[in-house]
């Protein structure tokens, strides 16, 4: 049943916990229909649909220790080094979710986190990072309450992760996930993401590949949070939301049927529309680099010449995500090596695929 905000308020302590430590590994995800534009309190202006990755992950350990001092100690270590500025993001997240997990105030909290991908790779760590943190907080909630079933555990983890970063809400599920109200998904909610039922996804998509070409490993010139707000005054805003809505309907049927051509066509349109919106807004950003366009052109030409189903999508940056079925992998990897690697910074790329979702590593 669909839940409301009040359903996520902590239900009370049944077994007190003095000290606890949890480790979760949580993946990033790649949106096929993009979340771009917000409404209300960190809610999406349109529904989005993604697949969860497998190799691009954040591993986070959170140590909770009951406090009897006035001051709460909050610390964050990234790759073993304490990070004050980066920590603020995590601490402000803990502050925002306090209304739903009031017990967080009773503990000193130490966060140890690391990413499998380089920090400067241009791959957003907010989806994997915020979902890993939310899952650790849920592990403590589960221990305190004792009555948290698996469905609620992941729904609330998604709900909390969303408050940290919208796209993080989709990272708590295996395979395909959607976030946002939509008439095609009766259980879809703006408050948390749901998994697209596996039986509604053709087997060819279960092993889909995403090879991420690292075109520009610099810092993004527009944060997604700032990017979302650009839509508020965008002249194409309403049309964007209408198109995104239609694309969810279309993608649902494409996933069911296993229509890879139609899939590629739709995801490329979505990616280019995202960038077109950024370029054409009242405040304009061009996040693609010359090498992004060079790769896109090469991919389209090679697809036409060889008939190999290779498609691209983009996130809010210059990197190109190459999407293709497992069966095309040998050919595509050869093509990347021979023709695309020259466009990657330091020849860097990451081979990823549809993943199985987060994993609790400890306890
Ligand atoms: C282009 O989830 O990073 O990757 O909610 O402000 O943290 P915040 O934004 P974020 O936006 C992601 C934008 C996107 C598309 C997507 O993942 O759906």
Name the features:
alpha+beta; 363 residues; 8-stranded mixed sheet; binds ligand DP6; 4-stranded antiparallel sheet; 14 strands
Shape: globular
Strand content: 15-25%
Bound molecules: ligand DP6
Biggest sheet details: 8 strands, mixed
C-alpha Rg (nearest Å): 20 Å
Tally of DSSP β-strands:
14
Question: Could you explain the architecture of this structure?
Answer:
By secondary structure, this protein is of the alpha+beta class. Helices cover 36% and strands 23% of the residues. It contains 9 helices and 14 strands. The chain has helices spanning 84-96, 126-145, 150-164, 203-206, 224-230, 237-257, 260-280, 290-306, 329-340, and strands spanning 19-33, 38-39, 43-44, 48-66, 74-78, 81-82, 107-115, 176-179, 193-195, 209-213, 311-314, 320-324, 349-353, 359-362. The strands form 3 sheets. Strands 1, 4, 5, 6, 7, 8, 9 and 14 form an 8-stranded mixed β-sheet that branches. A 4-stranded antiparallel β-sheet has the order 11-12-10-13. Strand 2 and strand 3 form a beta hairpin. Helix 2 packs across helix 3 (150-164) and helix 6 (237-257) runs antiparallel to helix 7. The longest helix has 21 residues, at 237-257. It is globular, with a radius of gyration of 20 Å. The protein starts with 18 loop residues before the first strand and ends with a strand. The relative contact order is 0.18. The structure holds ligand DP6. Residues 31, 34-36, 48, 124, 126, 165-167, 224-225, 228, 274, 315-316 line the site of ligand DP6. Ligand DP6 binds next to helix 5.
